[in-house]
């Protein structure tokens, strides 16, 4: 039985900054950001959106009544959690009107969380073929103003339903994983910005990619020629290119060109949004599905997931009959094109307006946020989520 991604949806809020503006404000050559980092725009997340509302807004795009009847597992992968006890999944279950008989919980391992959820959901659906799972990766990437990581910020969520006989991509039964206790990127409890050893994190990412892809191909008796494309976790899009370049010397010139072409299709959306942490890999998959003209049903796609700290995983998927979805593509492009561009000063004001993580009573104005789900503030230590028509 095939099990995999049946639907996939994405949400990012209505503001962005231009990377040329950011480079100018930081006295950097714009080509460092545009080419060296591979980003053209970056999502700016207003205080009225958090990991829960981003996730609910992404999931709302794909959930219909049939999903509501079948989903009995909700997995929320995030490293931007809003509570040390209560999971984001429970809020999402309520906001979306999902069944009270569903298991709902949150998992964390940096950017790897959504992949962990996807793999658990796949195994679950194999055991319960009539059921479906909702897996969401939702995050806000924050490093701080004027830090080296600033150009790699971003935010948003990707939601996926996992089902038998999926419309989009059937997942391989197993994968190759590699994990090691290292300090390349972390966020101690109470801090709103990540700490990172940037260049070290790049090296570890490449190492884990090499380990997992070679292990996977060896154990499945596959070669690079069997992979139509490889999608990467994209903390910034040049990182995926650095990963891909690791294996290019092992393939023919013709295959190099084809893998590079598919990679370009896979980074179109991320270039405009930045890092979504848990959702980034799946935004890259979405971008490939929407923007490659060369894919066909039955093609095998390599998928590399990486979460600092660190966990890597490589698996493959086979494209299914309805992997292309023009309506989904139109919706995403409309969402990205209709965002309002902020000046660097305006972005800094938004960045600094994030209420303290320990503030226990405040109200946010939601007038400017037209998303379906918004965060209205905190009342007596309780977060207030609202649904707008
Ligand atoms: P930096 O030191 O500012 O940049 O930090 P740099 O000097 O290394 O330059 C970056 C690239 O731009 C280099 O290319 C330069 O040559 C090039 P590379 O050697 O990498 O191929 N460059 C130019 N290119 C064209 N024209 C120019 C020009 N000037 C320079 N004029 C760094 C960059 C990524 C380290 C920093 O932004 C950072 O710390 N980011 C955050 C960490 C990160 O994203 N790490 C990625 C791997 S870890 C990961 O993916 C997990 C993560 O998502 C978290 C999680 O798991 O939860 C982060």
UniProtKB/TrEMBL annotation:
Keywords recorded for this protein, A-Z: Acyltransferase, Transferase
Residues annotated to bind (3S)-3-hydroxy-3-methylglutaryl-CoA: 29, 143, 242, 275
Domain of life: Bacteria
GO BP terms, alphabetized: acetyl-CoA metabolic process
Residues that span the membrane, as ranges: none
GO molecular-function terms, A-Z: hydroxymethylglutaryl-CoA synthase activity
Limits of the Hydroxymethylglutaryl-coenzyme A synthase N-terminal domain: 2-165
Domain Hydroxymethylglutaryl-coenzyme A synthase C-terminal: 264-349
Family stated for the protein in its record: Belongs to the thiolase-like superfamily. HMG-CoA synthase family.
EC numbers for this chain: 2.3.3.10
Protein name as annotated: Hydroxymethylglutaryl-CoA synthase
Active-site residues, record numbering mapped to chain: 79, 111, 233
Lineage: Bacteria, Bacillati, Bacillota, Bacilli, Lactobacillales
